Amino acid sequence: MPKKYIVIGGVAGGMSAAARLRRLDEDAEIIVFERGEYVSFANCGLPYYIGDTIKERNKLLVQTPEALTARFRVDVRTRSEALSIDPAAHTVRVKDTLRDREYIETYDKLILSPGAEPVKPPIPGIDHPNIYTLWTLPDTDRIKAVVTHRKPRHAIVVGGGFVGLEMAENFHQLDIHVSVVEALDQVMTPLDFEMAALVHQHLRAKNVGLYLSDGVASFADVGGLVRLRLKSGREVTGDIVLLSIGVRPNSKLARDAGLTIGQWGGIVVNDYLQTSDPDIYAVGDAVEIFNPILRRKGQIPLAGPANKQGRMVADNIVQGNVKKYAGTMGTAVAKVFDMTVAATGANEKALAAANIPHTSTIIHPASHAGYYPNALQMAFKVIFSPDTGQLLGAQGVGYDGVDKRIDVIATALHFGAKIQDLQEIEHAYAPPYSAAKDPVNMAGFIGENILTGKVKVIAWDRVEAIMNSPERGDHVLIDTRTPEEVKLGTIPGAVNIPVDALRARLNEIPKDKKIIIFCRVGLRGYIAARILAQKGYAEVYNLSGGYLTYSAATEKPAISQTFDESIDTGMRQSQAAVPMRQQVVEVDACGLQCPGPVMKVKAEMDKLAAGDQLIVKSTDPGFYSDVGSWAKATGNQVVSLNMEKGIVQATIQKGAGEQRIAEPSHGNDKTIIVFDGDLDKAIASFIIANGALAMGRKVTLFFTFWGLTILRKERPIGGLGKNLIEKMFGWMLPRGSKKLGLSRMNMAGMGPLMIRGLMKSRNVDSLEEMIRLALDNGARIIACQMSMDLMGIRKEELIDGVEIGGVATYLECAEHADTNLFI
Ligand code: FAD
After folding, report:
1. Which of 529, 394, 517, 509 is nearest to 449 (CA)?
2. Tens of pLDDT along 362-393?
3. Global pTM?
4. Ligand 1 center–CA 795 separation, angstroms
5. Region 241-250: what's the mean pLDDT?
6. So what's the pLDDT on residue 327?
7. Residues in a beta bridge with 229
8. Ligand 1 near 82 CB (within 6 A)
């Protein structure tokens, strides 16, 4: 006797089940009831049709009832709503809405895949005709008609989840100004706050009005527009509102049939996706699903799980409960303007709520090898058990390669891997795709360092809490970046000891305090933490994700303006401040890392006259904020700033601010005494020098004793009339910058080679290029006459551009300086 299967819901889960049933049972009668007009449509593609990325509506219709019937001999009945189920009688009562009639069908096995529907809470005014939700094709058609024919100027998206932000991007793509209103303090709840903060920055960079921590109190009509009054009292007015504040499972049919419903309102199923009635299975958004990371049930409405569950129940029905569903971890990805936002497993908020011990690492790796064009930085967070290393989740935010890394972690999570296992994952590598150590490997290395106690990490919010509490007195906060990076912003209360100067300045760091170290992304912080740990400092913590994470998470942006105000203010600002433009010069700083782009800007701006504009492109995401700080410090003005596909483009107008870049200094010059002749110290000296020059400061480098070797020419100069001792000094001292060793880990010359190789691969200028750049930008390089005499070094032996001077020359320069370094 052929079996009779009924499926309720004809899209993701339902249609997967129906097609698989047919592939397993050619003789069965299979009926699909779908209350809407369409089956198997691409609900995930709806926002992109509205935004015109998908041009043809037909493309959304992955299958038609006719095609499904032809291929799978499935009886697809659209406009057929299942009204009730009688589990005892094995019947379903159906309403044919086209013909307006009701009838009953019997079944042997029933599959429920009725999905979910958007939440519409009873907020006053929520039925305004210009408030829409997006879940079905008819919803899409309505919104498409509005954006096409009524051409709204301002769209307000209520809810900053995946669908809400996808729609924000698509409205924006249609040149509609967008505001996002979110009751929580962050968008994208699968992310932890500091990762979401990067999305906030990106949304603001795209000129999206962002109203966080502010739910809607009421909607009101203002001449056909919708005015939202927010809980804070602020008001936002728009032509169209998209409500996207979550979905609730369509479980009424199951509840009315007496099936067990869980605490989240979804249908309860066992491991085989069987409901409390053994002849009824349920899949997709309508069911409560086991989350194997949080070890509890919840609602995770995603297309991937719905499709796979549909396939699995067909196997279980035809072959007799052969497959167990392992649960849903919540692996998800979304395109948010130019960014990719992705997550898998649990985030720290959820783990804390579930009392599951966890720790994490945040890194900022490049999407592929830094020396290959268009490598773009991402933020990548991996969460794991502090006891065993068991992986618990990961989040990624960036412009390229984020989805790939999240999928690798999702796979590792699926197979129960530990963070240590990530170290050894062998990935496909070539420069356009990855680095020899992929970000996933890097997370594994750091995870292992944490687990084995080689480094202790501290999160941004803990640092913020410490620095704003009496605990502050027990801690020393050390910024290990260069002084120039520090100028662009640091954590209040931090002491700047660049990592390369740390060993020489250990006496400034008390041993009886807890030390918090940070750098830009965490790498120099880690090196510094290792130095201190080995020098006997017991409690040293490296800030996870570095200043990049801290600054994004603690940023307090100005409250978003309303649509009209923002336009108005923008116009007024541009009319008042920007003088007439003369020459426009374009420069490409892509591939350079901080402070490279700023230095390049400085070099180019020096060539321009007041009123000229420089358009600069950079792939360093930090440049987005750095360029504003630089312009402010140097009296220039950023007249436009945007980020497209991870490339920051800034237009800077020379001399439009109050200060002039070329003005004489007023006591903020920098002087550096270079005493040692080590490669690392020389590099550090010139990084600082060039950074200061980029900020428009005068720099003097005074080379004395062993430092003089940095300035020696490569080739020996004969005929200088040296005596024997002077000649011996000449033979023994390194001949020029290329022959210098490292102060530590020299390893018979291997160390310098490795450092130079690393610098090259990361697009950092070589020491020789740095010296040339410093001279070109006006640095005074003074060789100490007295040391030269003692060591028998002659002027002819030094590189071009070096002045010979005495201590008075140095002291005269130092009098105008606010920073004197001894390296
Ligand atoms: P659905 O696919 O929603 O199908 C349920 C069907 O059941 C509906 O057509 C409904 O009309 C029908 N139905 C309900 N009750 C009855 C009844 N009583 N009788 C007959 N028929 C009934 N997920 C992702 O993983 N990635 C994405 O990028 C993504 N983007 C999305 C974008 C949008 C705009 C939307 C709306 C959803 C998106 N989703 C995405 C979510 C994903 O589409 C759902 O998780 C998935 O479709 C759920 O499958 P389902 O079978 O449970 O429900």
Report:
1. 529
2. 999 999 998 999 899 999 999 999 999 999 99
3. 0.76
4. 79
5. 97
6. 96
7. 218, 235
8. yes
CA of 199 to the centre of ligand 1 (A): 26
Any ligand 1 atom below 6 A from CB of 169 = no
Q: Minimal CA–CA distance to 9: which of 39, 29, 41?
A: 39
- Three-state secondary structure along 754-814? HHHHHHHHCCCCCHHHHHHHHHHCCCEEEEEHHHHHHHCCCHHHECCCEEEECHHHHHHHH
> Mutation test of ligand 1: which of 6, 62, 96, 285 has the most ligand atoms closer than 8 Å to its C-beta?
285
Q: Which positions are catalytic?
A: 519
Flag whether pLDDT at 562 surpasses 50.
no
Kindly report the backbone phi and psi dihedral angles of residue 666, in degrees, each rounded to the nearest multiple of 5, phi listed first.
-125, 65
Query: What is the total residue count of the chain?
Result: 823
| Ramachandran region, residue 510 (left: φ > 0; alpha: ψ -120 to 50; beta: rest) | beta
Q: What is the dihedral of CA 576, 580, 583, 585, to 10 degrees?
A: 10
Region 438-442: what's the mean pLDDT? 97
pLDDT on residue 565: 41
Q: Vertex 634, ends 632 and 639: CA angle to 5°?
A: 50
Burial of residue 387 (number of CB atoms within 10 Å: 0-12, 13-18, 19+): exposed
Provide the pLDDT for residue 657: 53
Q: One-letter amino acid identity for 326?
A: A
Q: Is the shortest distance between the CB of 303 and ligand 1 below 6 Å?
A: yes
115 lines ligand 1 (CB under 6 A): yes
Does the C-beta of 35 come closer than 6 Å to ligand 1? yes
Look up tokens 């007023």; give the residue. Answer: 666
Q: Which amino acid is at 251?
A: S
Kindly calculate the radius of gyration of the chain based on its CA atoms and give it in whole angstroms.
32
Ramachandran assignment for 341, one of left (phi > 0), alpha (psi -120 to 50 degrees), beta (any other) = beta
Nearest-angstrom CA–CA distance, 381 and 392 = 11
Q: How far apart are CA 47 and CA 117, in angstroms?
A: 16
44 within ligand 1 shell (Cβ under 6 A): yes
Q: Can the peptide bond before residue 470 be classed as cis, meaning omega within 30 degrees of 0?
A: no
Written as six digits, the tokens of 388 are 């065993």
Tell me the CA–centroid distance for residue 12 and ligand 1, in Å. 6
Assign 666 a pLDDT band (cuts: 50, 70, 90).
low
How would you write 756-773 as a 3-class SS string? HHHHHHCCCCCHHHHHHH
Residue 99 to residues 13, 79, 82, 451, Cα–Cα distance (Å): 27, 9, 15, 66
How remote is the CA of residue 53 from the centroid of ligand 1, in Å? 21
Residue 334 CA, closest ligand 1 atom number: 28
Q: What integer best gives the mean pLDDT of the chain?
A: 91
Burial 58-95 (b: 16+ CB within 10 A, else e): eebeebbbeebeeebebbbbbebbbeebebeebbbebb
Q: Which atom of ligand 1 is found nearest the CA of 162?
A: 30
Distance 135 CA to ligand 1 centre (A): 7
Q: Give the span between the Cα atoms of 92 and 85, in whole angstroms.
A: 5
The amino acid sitting at 520 is R
Q: Take atom 38 of ligand 1 and give the residue whose Cα is closest.
A: 44
